[in-house]
Amino acid sequence: MKKYLNKKLKKVFVAMSGGVDSSVAALLLKKQGYDVTGFFMRCYNLDGCAERDAEDARRVAGHLGIPFYVWDFEKEYKERVVEYMIRGYAAGLTPNPDVMCNREIKFGLFLERALNMGADFVATGHYVKIQSSTIKGQKVHKLFQAKDTNKDQSYFLWTLTSKDLEHCLFPIGEYVKPEVRKIAKRARLPTAEKKDSQGICFLGKITLKDFLKQRLSAKRGAIVTSTGVYVGEHDGAAFYTIGQRHGLKLGSVNKELGIVKKMETKPYYVAEKNIRKNTLVVAEGEDNPALYKRTLLLAEVNWIRSIALGRSLSVRARVRYRQPLAAARIMNKESGIRRGSKGLIHTSSFLILKFLRPQKFVAPGQSAVFYSNKGEMLGGGIITCGD
What we know:
- The chain is α+β, with helices and mostly antiparallel strands.
- Helices cover 22% and strands 34% of the residues.
- The protein is built from seven helices and 20 strands.
C-alpha cells in the first residue's frame, strides 16, 4: 500500500459521505496508524438519499471498527450554499455550489468544529494531493492535482489556503479510481460497488431547472441568434446555462414575433443570457466565435499560498471542471498585479485572466482556477465577465 502520510496517534476526523472514496480514505488512514473517527455531515437534501448515504457511512465505520457520528449542518447548508446558488441564477449567473460547499461546510464549519474538538486533521475522499515544503524558513502547504487526472477535484478546492491545508489529509490523491475500487473490494467495504454520485448533490434525481422553478418565476422570452435573428422562445433566462444545447425551444411559432425560419441542422448553444431583457442568445455550431472568450475578469480571488510575482504571472488555467488546462497570464486591471510587502500576493479583489487561445463556454458565476507549470494549484476566482 502506498503511504500518504504517517503520523501515529494523530487524531483525524474523516468526512464520510457514504461513498467508496471517503470509505477508502478512512480505511487507509486507520492502516497508517491514525486515531480515526468518522463523521457524516447531514446537509439539505430533496429526495431522501442523504439518509441512505448516512447509513452506508455508518456501516463502513462499523466494518472498520471506528467511532461514527452525524453532524447536522442542514440549516447552514441551506443558507450558505442553496441560497447562494439561487441568488446566482436569479442574477443571470451560473454559480458553483460544490465550490461553496467546500468553502463554507467541509473546510469551513466541519474543519473549525473538528479542530475545536481536538482533532489534528480532517480528511475527505477528494482526489487531490498536498505537498509541504519550507520556503525562506517558513513551512508552506501546497495543493496539487491528483494522480488520477480524470477524477482530479482540485478545481473545487481553490478557496482553501495553506493554513487550511495544514490540517487536511487527502489519502486517495495518490491513487487512480480503479485502485480505490480494488482496495475497497479487498477490504470488503460495504460501499465497494456503490456508484459515484452525479450532478448537484442535494438535488438527487430532481433536475436543476425544476428546482429553480420552485423559487424563481417562469417568464417567457425570446431566443435570438448572435446576429439578432429570432429563432424561438424560452420560459425564463435564469433557467439556462452558457453552453447549454438541449432543452432549447427552437423553431416554435410566436404570433407576436412571427414564425421563425426553418432551423438548420447544426446544433445551437447558449452563448449569452440577459436577465434584464429576459433573452437568450444562441450560436450555431460548436466552433462559432460567439461561444469563445479570451480575457476574463475574476472577482473574489483567492491564492492558496503567498506567491512572489512580477508584473504578470504565467499560469495554466481552466474555466470548467475537467477542462484541459490552457496557457494564460494573470494581471490586475492596471496591467500589473497588486502586491503586498516583499512582492508577495495573498488575495486580491479583482484580477484579469488572459488565455493564449480563446476558451469555449465561459459562464459568469463559475470558477476559473489556475496552476503552475508543475501542477501546483495556485488559486482561483469567480468569473464576472469576459470578451
